[in-house]
């Protein structure tokens, strides 16, 4: 027997009077435009470095290998790194919420009816692969190490140590990316969430508490770090093209 | 004092319609006050469940202007009363009459969850850090607003293969309990249907007790299900060394 109730809402879109459509619209626009921009940057293979600065899209996580050494490759060297953050973000619990709501309307907003009748959730291919989020987190660690290496290198110009606007932008970018990476739900589980008796594992409990504190804003770090990657690439690109001049504090 | 029009659902499980009532509202009134005024002055047969009027009994759940909420916690000065205010029963559950719904399915689904099971001869000493997480889940007042707003139950009527956020919170409170040794991961993956949840966080948004349902209960449970069923490396080690048993005959609290 179906327990489907009758409340007179069946034929209505929603009774909600607030602007519930703003959030999914923002997600579609920001993720859509960023996705297209990232593809263009990856195919473009130009203007990805300026002085000691290198775009995060071209920070190759292989020791001793610079993107410009890989010009001989048929595909852009950006693709050697991009699949990791792409996979990490695509399987991220925050982004899952964002794209299920905005792109699949599953649902578009709370208590707003959906468009499609069938729904399988994350039990079947392809969405069951979201369960492998932790593996993309493991892969993101070397990427983060190399991004930190590139950010520190951005303070060492051809004439020695210095601070430019680009150095600070790259530093801010890697800090925001670190907050995003280390506020991950999968990492929170691995670090201590999987335990039942926290009192027996004081170190892991302390670590879990710290992760929990930044995990509460995981969505914020996810969005702000995406925009910081975007902004960092745009800044370095414009410097490289000669459109703007990088200001050196000293 | 001003007058506000309320469109209140009147009907039963066979159907119904919205009926207009005009209410004189005063400062500080909540939606439940307006419904009581309608009952007192215009429609004495209007059915509505309520008890504490303090957001603690979880009885007066309804949909005000399309948003699932407790009527006793929804002040009229927080909603636009220049337009008619719509009040409907919770959509996910069958209507008994007017604003009263039949929520017994939740208690039936609850039977799928194995009860609290301590190890034999348990030493009943716990530390605060062991029960911090579980205490958050104990704040639940069982208003079932999370069950009502969950699109798996609301839109897809998946009431056989999915237990919903409230019961996932209850499962989390048992699974994370330091003295419990039962394993509910198989239930979660199969008849509990945790894979149906796609983390859209509506349950968290409507919770009147502000329980972080998704972040603190559902996602940690999903990660435990991943440990058991989807992580190929952990699966390899499990086959190699066997599963860790949760029950400890020593009577000490079990750990995983």
UniProtKB/TrEMBL annotation, chain A:
Top-level taxon in the UniProt lineage: Bacteria
Transmembrane segments: 21-43, 72-95, 135-155, 161-182, 219-238
Keywords attached to this entry: Membrane, Transmembrane, Transmembrane helix
Protein name: Succinate dehydrogenase
Native organism: Meiothermus hypogaeus
From TrEMBL, chain B:
Pfam families: Fer2_3, Fer4_8
Domain 2Fe-2S ferredoxin-type: 2-93
Cofactor: [3Fe-4S] cluster; [2Fe-2S] cluster; [4Fe-4S] cluster
InterPro entries: 2Fe-2S_ferredoxin-like_sf, 2Fe-2S_ferredoxin-type, 2Fe2S_fd_BS, 4Fe4S_Fe-S-bd, Beta-grasp_dom_sf, Helical_ferredxn, SDH/FRD_Iron-Sulfur, Succ_DH/fum_Rdtase_Fe-S
SUPFAM superfamilies reported for this sequence: 2Fe-2S ferredoxin-like, alpha-helical ferredoxin
GO function terms (MF aspect): 2 iron, 2 sulfur cluster binding; 4 iron, 4 sulfur cluster binding; electron transfer activity; metal ion binding; oxidoreductase activity
Pathway where this protein functions: Carbohydrate metabolism; tricarboxylic acid cycle
A GO CC term assigned to this protein in UniProt: plasma membrane
Example of a GO biological process term: tricarboxylic acid cycle
Keywords attached to this entry: 2Fe-2S, 4Fe-4S, Iron, Iron-sulfur, Metal-binding, Oxidoreductase
Top-rank taxon: Bacteria
CDD domains tied to this protein: fer2
Family classification: Belongs to the succinate dehydrogenase/fumarate reductase iron-sulfur protein family.
Record-given protein name: Putative succinate dehydrogenase, iron-sulfur subunit
């Amino acid at each position: 027997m179906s327990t489907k109730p009758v409340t007179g809402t069946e034929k209505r879109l929603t009774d909600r009077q607030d602007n519930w459509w703003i959030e999914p619209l923002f997600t579609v626009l920001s993720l859509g435009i960023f996705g297209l921009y990232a593809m263009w940057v990856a195919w473009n293979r130009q203007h990805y470095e300026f002085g000691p600065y290198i775009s995060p899209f071209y920070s190759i996580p292989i020791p001793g290998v610079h993107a410009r050494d890989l010009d001989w490759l048929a595909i852009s060297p950006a693709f050697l790194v991009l699949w990791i953050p792409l996979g990490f973000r695509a399987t991220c619990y925050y982004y899952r919420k964002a794209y299920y709501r905005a792109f699949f309307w599953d649902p578009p907003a709370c208590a707003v009816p959906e468009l499609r009748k069938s729904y399988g959730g994350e039990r079947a291919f392809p969405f069951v692969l979201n369960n492998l989020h932790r593996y993309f987190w493991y892969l993101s660690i070397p990427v983060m190490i190399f991004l930190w290496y590139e950010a520190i290198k951005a303070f060492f110009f051809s004439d020695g140590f210095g601070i430019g606007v680009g150095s600070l932008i790259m530093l801010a970018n890697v800090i925001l990316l670190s907050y995003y990476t280390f506020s991950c739900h999968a990492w929170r589980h691995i670090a201590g969430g999987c335990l039942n008796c926290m009192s027996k594992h004081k170190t892991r409990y302390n670590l879990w508490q710290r992760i929990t504190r930044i995990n509460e804003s995981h969505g914020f770090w996810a969005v702000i770090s995406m925009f910081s990657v975007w902004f960092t690439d745009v800044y370095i690109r414009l410097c490289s093209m000669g459109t703007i001049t990088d200001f050196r504090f000293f | 004092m001003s007058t506000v029009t309320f469109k209140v659902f009147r009907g039963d499980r066979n159907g119904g319609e919205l009926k207009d009532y005009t209410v004189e509202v005063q400062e500080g009134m909540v939606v439940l006050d307006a419904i009581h005024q309608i009952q007192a002055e215009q429609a004495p047969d209007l059915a509505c469940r309520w008890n504490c009027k303090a957001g603690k009994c979880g009885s007066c759940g309804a949909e005000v202007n399309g948003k699932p909420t407790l009527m006793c916690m929804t002040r009229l000065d927080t909603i636009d009363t220049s337009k008619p205010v719509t009040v409907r029963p919770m959509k996910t559950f069958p209507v008994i009459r007017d604003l009263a719904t039949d929520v017994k399915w939740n208690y039936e689904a609850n039977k799928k969850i194995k009860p609290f099971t301590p190890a034999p001869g348990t030493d009943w000493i716990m530390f605060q850090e062991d029960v911090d997480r579980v205490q958050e889940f104990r704040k639940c007042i069982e208003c079932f607003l999370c069950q009502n707003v969950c699109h798996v139950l609301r839109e897809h009527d998946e009431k056989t293969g999915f237990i919903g956020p409230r019961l996932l919170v209850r499962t989390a409170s048992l699974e994370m309990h330091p003295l419990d040794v039962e394993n509910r991961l198989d239930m979660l993956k199969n008849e509990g249907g945790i894979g149906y949840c796609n983390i859209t966080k509506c349950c968290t948004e409507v919770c009147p007790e502000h329980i972080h349902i998704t972040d603190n209960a559902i996602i940690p449970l999903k990660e435990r299900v991943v440990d058991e069923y989807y992580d190929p490396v952990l699966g390899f080690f499990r086959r190699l060394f066997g599963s860790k048993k949760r029950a400890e005959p020593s009577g000490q609290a079990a750990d995983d």
